[in-house]
Design brief:
Glutaredoxin; 3 helices; alpha+beta; 39% helix
Length: 88
């Protein structure tokens, strides 16, 4: 569920990906609420691919914006999309 001050955030993750763990910890630290979906479920993977064209983890959706790749590569864009100028 998204907080009132931010757009809806959805993340697609896997249980074993270190970048997924870092992303989730960062979102929690920044007090950003998010919905999480496990890409190890084939139906979830198919949905993520249909929505984003991607089959990687983590995938982060902020409103209509899509971010993917390692957490360090996502963080600057996520910070901007979430209005977290202090976190970039």
């Amino acid at each position: 569920m998204a907080s009132a001050s931010h757009q809806q955030v959805i993340i697609y993750t896997t249980p074993t990906c270190p970048d997924d763990w870092v992303l989730k910890a960062w979102l929690k630290r920044e007090e950003i609420e998010f919905e999480e979906y496990d890409l190890s479920d084939r139906k979830i993977m198919a949905k993520a691919k249909a929505c984003t064209g991607l089959r990687v983890a983590p995938i982060t959706l902020v409103g209509e914006k899509v971010f993917y790749g390692t957490f360090p590569s996502q963080k600057p864009g996520l910070a901007v999309a979430l209005g977290l100028s202090h976190a970039a």
